[in-house]
Automatic annotation (TrEMBL):
This is Neprosin PEP catalytic domain-containing protein. Pfam families: Neprosin, Neprosin_AP. It comes from Dioscorea zingiberensis. Residues 152-406 form the Neprosin PEP catalytic domain. The keyword DNA repair does not apply. The lineage of its organism: Eukaryota, Viridiplantae, Streptophyta, Embryophyta, Tracheophyta. Residues 1-27 form the signal peptide. Transmembrane segments: none annotated. Keywords: Signal.
Amino acid sequence: MYVIVKVLKMMLLFIFVCLLLPSFGLSSENNLTIDEDLEIERQLKLLNKPAIKTIVDDGDIYDCVDIYKQPAFDHPSLKNHKIQLRPNSYPDGLFDDDISSSTNGTSIEIGLKDGNTCPSGTVPIRRVSKDDLIRMRTSFKDMKMNPPVKNDKNHIQKQWAVYIGRSKKPSGFSGVSAFINVYGLPQVMLTQFSSSLAWLVNNLKEDQINIISVGWTVSPVTYGDNKTRLTAGWTIDNYQKTGCQDTSCPGFVQLSKKLPLGFAVKRLSTYGGKQYGLNIIVFKDPDSKNWWLFLGKDRELIGYWPNELFTALPFNQIHFGGTVGYIENSKKPPMGSGHFPIEGIHKSCLISNIRYANMENKMQDLELDVLSPYSSLRKCYYVGPYFKENDQYGNMFFFGGPENCP
């Protein structure tokens, strides 16, 4: 009897999913004209370069492609770009802090599992599927992980719980670094996303907003699942017509052979238990003007955003915290750990060791007098006080909120 009931439940679940998918426009054969289908196939050929080696990691496929033939160089502004293999210099003080034990959290062992790396001269690029592109064409395409700089005018609702730092000087900011606590949020649904990020922003007119973002996200629309993933994005118009996450469009130059953007984070913090996090670093090379991304306690190089991508710098704001997105009048997803900041250490999501690179190329703590808190829906998500616990923890704050907030 138990087996029969179990089978019936599975059949009902399967029928429900089958009925649900077409309404979201996610089937690879749904709502596509012949021209649209041909256009998607053309995009797939452009994005998925010939692979010298293929690596399968947690269900994802990574193609090891020639470093000089990666998707980045399909961007019109990068046709004559000369690849840079390492920065010419690093910000002063970048390696001075001890970030390996931030707030009793452990810096995650990052990269592809089982020591998988691409051969010399190639880099791992996450393979884009037809369903990936179709999801991005649906009504959920506006679920972009932008900071709270302009109001979105569509049916996608977004909320933020962040600290916003504004430069006191016209020269702005030339980098950021932070430890971001990482959690799993398997309850995030197809119509939602939840991200914990740091953003570099120039707050100008809507069609001139340049952004770089780095952190982690749970975004079924972007990745087709609800795994927690390293994510990084860019845009020059607040995601109206340009930019994307990771390497799903030309722009970011991948250099690491083992650390691809978009990989699923293997170790996640648990409520009241062991804590893990990502140490992120973004800074501008003062010579090439390229924007470099490093990750982990050992500051491992991932790649860079070429200076040619951007149109209106300097970045005059830096944002830290969480953002969520969901369909209008639907349930709200969790943010951070899924708990309010007041619960504190080992229970609420935190961002700590928050620093920035000034235009003299020196790292320094981000002080409270340049910051202002912003919580767009405080009853559901908010940021806690910004404070410095001690030299080991650095400047820090807690943020977030639960799912299904009324």
